[in-house]
Amino acid sequence: MNHPISKVLIIGTGADQINQSTETDDAIYQVASSLNDLGIDVSLIDNNPFSVALGDKTIIHDSKIAPITFDNVLETINEFQPDAILPNLGGLKSIQIAQQLFESEELKKRDITMLSMPEFAIRQISNPVLMNEMLKKMGAPITTTETITSFSDAIHIVQEIGYPVIIKPVSPFGNSSRRLCNDNDELAEAVEIAMSQSKIQQAVLQQSIVGYQEIELVVIRDRLGSMLQVAGIEDFDPIGIHAGDSISFTPTQTLMDIELQELRDLAFSITRKLRIVGVNHVQFALNPDTGKFYVIKNSPYFDRITSFAGHATGYPLLYVCANLLMGKTLEQLELPASFGFKSALLEPTMDHIAVRMPIWPFQSLPDADQNLGTQMRSTGAVIGIGRSTEEALIKAIRATRAQADSLSIESQVKLTDDQIIQYIIHPRANRIVILMEALHRGYSRDELSELTKIDPFFFYKLEKIISLENEIAENPDDVEVLTRAKYFGMSDRMISVLWNQTEDKVRQFRIDNELSPTYKQVDFSAGEFDQHSNRFYSTFELENESHPSDAEHRALIIGTGGLRLGNAGASDYFTSKLILSLQKQNYETVLVNNNPSAVSMNLADKLYTEPLEAPDILEVISIEKPEIVYVPGSRSRLITILEQKDLKVEKLPQNGQLLSHLASGKEYALTMIYDGTNAVSLDLTSYLIQNESGFGDPTAFIYPAKVNSRLKSDIMSIGTERIKQQVTPGIYQALFVVTGGVHFEQVRQLPLAEQSFLAKVLNLDLVDISLKLAQSQCDVNQLEINLVNNKIWAFSAAFPFRSLGLHDETIQSETIIGAEMAYGHSITDALKQLSPNGEDSIHNGTYY
Amino acid sequence: MVERYLILEDGTAYKGEGFGAPAVTTGELVFNTSMTGYQQIITDQIYHNQIVIFTQPNIGSYGINQSNYESIVPTIKGVIVRDLANVSTNRISRLSLDQYLKQMNIPGISGIDTRAVVSKLRQMGETVKASIVPVADDHAFDQLHATVLTNQQVAQVSTPKPYPNPGTGNSVVVIDFGLKHGILRELVKRNCNVTVLPYTASAEDILSLDPDGVILSTGPGSPYDINDSVIEMIQSIQTRVPLFAIGLGHELFALANGANVVKLPAEHHGMNHPIKEVITTHIIYASQGQGFAVERNSVDRRTLFITYVDLLNDTVQGLRHRDFPAFSVQFFPDGAPGPDETKGLFDEFLETIHRQEDNR
């Protein structure tokens, strides 16, 4: 770094997908806002319409909406002239682009600095072979991978490392197989087959680490080489199941100190060797039989685990890393005012336990393969925090659902013993439920541990939960048992099911017996220092640490939890923007949410990391006494309960509403902002993909629609009339079908996906406008609206079908995982920029 | 479930569930923020006279194993945890924490709002006496108030007789103030021929063994409760052979060289404080356990220089003598539990020995 940096370009991530969701947008938002505070102009290239950061003028000086490709990044560099590029916020793809930028010498030509890691590190991260060579050279333990040309080569290696091993061909002709071998016979056959499939008669022999325990460490490093460990994370499921699909615990639950110290040393040496500045996430495999470790992956970029580490520990990871990237050292750095203790060097130590639990897409996609393997299948995750392993685990399980009746699933009871065994050996989504059922049916801890390779400690904890459930069931209305049940994290609802009562009755009984949660700070000093963290979780103990502030206005916002299919990213976009708008109106914003990847989780003034069931929310309300509660529109039961308590409730728009068609033909929507008196047009959208059963959430559309002036004036006049008939102010769409003539269908609220898209296209904070409309503080005639007239914009949803092994799946709004947006001079021009490599996207540019 | 209480001098009582031995115990209440290594902490003799609260809520999850003891007979007075995992199923463990504490006659309580107790200790900012009792009645509080804790901790934990730990390398004498096995482990790894002597050993006793170097070990309690003859021993030894002092040994080394040692308002036990090596500005993390610290202004810069400083509380964490091959650290360089990055100090000690040999 030999010139001062004043302008940084961040490479974004594109559409949310499996293995990469809103955590990157969260990281971009937080890092960009910290960079702003340091006086740095931030620019961003991204094409994700659900991004909170993209187009937000308050933190991003220049936004480029384009697919993230080498050419586009280069074009963006030419346009915005940054001094430095930040490649660690866009996942592996942005690291690969960073490497291309180095190789093309474009950075050197322009004297642009690459932040966060040097060139050789970038090269190694995108090339596992180089990485392994480096690790080998530095003496780090890695699994054996060797090229072989004969059976005797293979036998030679196996004599050293033992079975099982994996054999696969090098440069295969076409189809190639990957074979797991457990003995010499299998090896001989596998080598023969691999040789015959290889163009060059070579095969690769890999040591198999399936069944090993997986441990992940998150560390940070400053430019002078000071390092600290942010978190150690232990995966419940062994290797063989993608880490993203495993339940994860932090702090590590079964690792001894000597083992953890060894991993820490290794993570530090690798981070030092690669000269990484900022965050590094290192994954290890532990052979449970020998206690031997292997380094399996090194990811020096923000990902789902770094966001989990941040929320679990309470350490301001993104703030700290942003400062480290700009050359500050850990020693110099002071934490923001909300931290009682100012030093960034205090290594996080926890007095609570956090669990990350995956969210599955199978409710929306029942045909998808539910077997778990090396391909990630979960779409999001939730976090549960508690003061015991049981409490954190139960809270995480509760957080995966809007309402959890029990820890087992009804249908489980019907499974035969054979099916149970099958599911234990071939793990499926939600395997923890199967494992609980197996314990119920009398399998022992050791048996299950042997079959699943999961540490017996976890079965010990599951057994404790089962015996607690039995105790509850056998002792209805017993205060002592209720106390224990609450202490270990059971919800009022779960207890009510076991007691065969209503949830409300249990809740009342609990309150009558003065059993209320206490809220503890998510404090990374474990109580050693007087922190004033603004992050809390509930438990049932003596001391409550959460007290309402003396803010004049307080709003409680209920988040949408873990990301599910169906435009979930757009929901968190709305929640995030709502928080920012309320803050501008001097509201203290208090959020209850549990998605470690959500942008909203890092925006509110005060955060409760909690499940989102009605009793959880009511407890927070009794402490915070908010003026108003914002609840997602889909939570109708919660809304009723809150309204019954005379609380002022505001519904947030919801996704996925399907309105049936009256006629069929080309679909158009007129969007208008209506303040109760006047309505102003935001122009027409034309939908590309039509849902046979009605208007759903948009999956692909063009904006503004190209229609002839007669048609447009018809739509405008009918639409305006219809929208002005609405009772409350809001942003509405009048829906039309055109089949020869114009058929008005109905009026709906502007869908969230379209709202986040239009906000970027029109450079208009539509969430802020919605809020003001609801507050009757918006006069549409005062709005400055510049409609698009020289460009065509396109929106296209992305679907996770390929990742889930699905073919010929029908495109529908319930299965959207993310989206892309683009613009051009013509429709074709705009469409062809969507998803350059996206089989997962519906568009290949051939529609027009 | 056996009800037990943690009671404090100020009249507070916390109800929990008993585990370990059903004994009544009294000691100073301290908390340790380490997230791993409960076995090493429980067996570390610096906790003689003390009841330890673990802030990490899940304790016991990998049992007790034969390779992580820091003493043969632990002297800790009691163990307070939020949640006890009663397992012995780890790869190398055969004993649960509960079984172990029963064997060693140490009582424990689980189910305590440890965070609330820690917050109370932090706010009180002084040493607090506490008991673990079956009933929190007046009698129990009277007993607690009446109990006087010994200040002869070192005398009680130090070995009464010398013993060898033979090796083929350099001869090192370890003075046992409440020795932590980690020190011996590091010396054994470096092939040292070790002799452990009682803390009462005189300079003559030590020199008669003709050691290449001397280590002053960690130990419990206040350095002021230790006989002046120990200070004289240090003053004499440091001029003759390379000296490495750790923990309580470091505090005594400072006293022997004219510095002052003060009691900290709150004891610090954990492994998450950044410690700066003054000469390199390098930042390390180490296992710490201290109720006392060397007063920074009292260090005579003509005799000693400060080598390590805790960046959070500004305490002196290391000293080196200007004239003699003698140095000390407040933290535990052997880890056990805790980061490994300070183990190099044992190499530094041996290098000092080798340099001395070359000079001879």
Explain what you see.
Chain A: Its cofactor is Mn(2+). Chain A: It comes from Paucilactobacillus nenjiangensis. Chain A: InterPro entries: ATP-grasp (IPR011761), CarbamoylP_synth_lsu_oligo_sf (IPR036897), CPAse_ATP-bd (IPR005479), CPSase_dom (IPR005483), CPSase_lsu_oligo (IPR005480), CPSase_preATP-grasp (IPR058047), PreATP-grasp_dom_sf (IPR016185). Chain A: It catalyses: hydrogencarbonate + NH4(+) + 2 ATP = carbamoyl phosphate + 2 ADP + phosphate + 2 H(+). The complex is a heterodimer of chains A (848) and B (360). By secondary structure, chain A is an alpha/beta fold. Chain A folds into six domains: 7-115, Rossmann fold; 145-207, Dna Ligase, domain 1 (2-Layer Sandwich); 213-348, D-amino Acid Aminotransferase, Chain A, domain 1 (2-Layer Sandwich); 405-518, Carbamoyl-phosphate synthetase, large subunit oligomerisation domain (Carbamoyl Phosphate Synthetase, Chain A, domain 4, Orthogonal Bundle), CATH 1.10.1030; 519-652, Rossmann fold (3-Layer(aba) Sandwich), CATH 3.40.50; 659-831, 2-Layer Sandwich (D-amino Acid Aminotransferase, Chain A, domain 1). In chain A, helix 1 (23-37) packs across helix 11, helix 13 crosses helix 14 (431-440) and helix 16 (456-474) packs antiparallel against helix 17 (479-487). The two termini of chain A are 48 Å apart. Chain B folds into two domains: 3-146, Glucose Oxidase, domain 1; 153-359, Rossmann fold (3-Layer(aba) Sandwich), CATH 3.40.50.880. Chain B has ten helices and 23 strands.
